[in-house]
Amino acid sequence: METISSKAKIAKRAAEEIKNGSIVNLGIGIPTLVADYLDTGKEVYLHTENGLLGVGPSPSEKQLDLEIINAGKLPVTAQLGASYFSSSESFAMIRGGHVNTVILGALQISETGNLANWAVPGKDILGVGGAMDLVAGAKEVIITTQHCSKDGEPKIVSECTYPVTAKNIVSTLISEYAVFRFVENKMVLEELADGWTVEKLKEITPAKFIVSPTLSIY
Question: Which SUPFAM superfamilies does the UniProt entry name for this protein (predicted)?
Answer without folding.
Answer: NagB/RpiA/CoA transferase-like
